[in-house]
Amino acid sequence: MKRILVVDSDEQVASILGVKLKQADFEATAAGSSADALRIIPEFRPDIIVSEMILPKMSGIDFMKRVKMNPETMNIPFVFLSSSRDVENKILALSMGAEAVFAKPLYISDLIKNIREILGEYDSKASFIVEESAPEGDVSDISALNILSILLENSSSGEVEFSSSSDKTGVIFCDCGNVVRVETSGGENKDGMEELYKILSWLDGTFSVNYRDIDVERNIFIPQKKIIEKSVEWFREYSAIIHSLPPVDTTIYLDFAKFVENLNRMPEDIDSVIKNIAESGSRISDIIDLCSGDRLRTAAYLKQLFELSVISSANVNSVYKVESPQWLVSCGKTAEIEENLPEETPETVENIEKPEEPGESGPVAAPVEESAGEPKKSAWDELAEQSSRRGKSGKIALFVLLLAIAAAIIIFIYYRGLI
């Protein structure tokens, strides 16, 4: 007799389904939540699970993830019942391995018919299955953090291979549910937690689990629960920053003018981020991958650069211009100096003055004799003389002021004596 586990928080629905399934010659038992179901599965060992998608504390999809990630229960087929009109969740459930999704209210006869067909298919496949298929999927559906939690719950041993959308790879080795080593391609693989943070930052990609006995050199020495706590805290901060930025596949550019203007507002080691932004632009994900430091700090630097408009998704190509000193602008000499600067003209045949012939308009040396007098003062010389004159007049004004104060004091003392 085939065993069916019904998981539904509505006791009335679970009771009715249990009665109808027993009438159809199935052995059925019910659970009111995902947590209760996970406790029942090892003893009851169901042949198929019929579950509501909306469950308290842990959704039906998360419940299925945990069942599918356990090597002992990974081949149990799932049938979902849903009272929601959310199509995306239904598509997600089917893409992750659910056999069918039925909308409530439903015809129990149709449900029982489909259950028989699914069980028949599984029975026929069982005779051809020589080796268990390894659990695999997308990181966007099951994050590395969820995988670690599931491995801990199941006390599983094996290795989880990850591949990011930018072709980076990494492996997490677990022994009885505990992470003992993490390594990534291109990484130093000395500090396991730093390597784990790299894998956690891969929001897109694939994973596959290979259950086996593990014998590797450790590079993580803290308990699994502590690993998950630190990872959750790190991932929460990282996700908050990443979601404040444009999508990670966005190409960004450096605005050199804004960079120079905001130099005093940037940390000293931000050059590790700046140097990875190419002139032709770079993707946010590539910049984070190329930076050798902590990815959380790199993401925080990118956020700061965006806020200062030093980087953006638009290619500005601005040029930094040095402004005139403020004291020069206040003196009103900027325009005068610019007027006195010689104009640059192209040196063409027409612009080159021809020397005059001796007999045409006098000797050639005449212009030199006319300019042999006192040389004309430059704008900078006039500015210096003006500053000097202001200094002298300031001294005279100060001397007169001191005399006036002294006279006032003498007069005050004189009249005070008369009184």
In short:
This protein is of the alpha/beta class and 419 residues long.
How many DSSP-defined strands?
A: 13
Question: Strand arrangement, largest sheet?
Answer: 2-1-3-4-5
Following the backbone from N to C, one meets helices and strands in this order, namely: EHEHEHEHEHEHEEEHEHEHHEHHEHHHH
How confident overall, as mean pLDDT? 80
- What's the CATH topology name of the largest domain? Rossmann fold
Strand content: 15-25%
The major sheet is characterized as: 5 strands, parallel
CATH homologous superfamily of the largest domain, by name?
A: Response regulator
Treating each run of at least 4 consecutive H or I residues as one helix, how many helices?
16
Measured between the Cα atoms of the first and last residue, the distance is 128 Å
Task: Give short descriptive properties of this protein.
419 residues, Rossmann fold, 3 domains
Please characterize this protein's 3D structure.
This protein has 419 residues and is of the alpha/beta class. The chain has three domains: 3-131, 3-Layer(aba) Sandwich (Rossmann fold); 137-243, no CATH class; 246-340. The chain has 16 helices and 13 strands. The strands form three sheets. Strands 2-1-3-4-5 form a five-stranded parallel beta sheet, sandwiched between helices. Helix 7 crosses helix 8 (224-243). The longest helix is centred in the last third of the chain and has 40 residues, at 379-418. The chain is elongated and about 125 Å long.
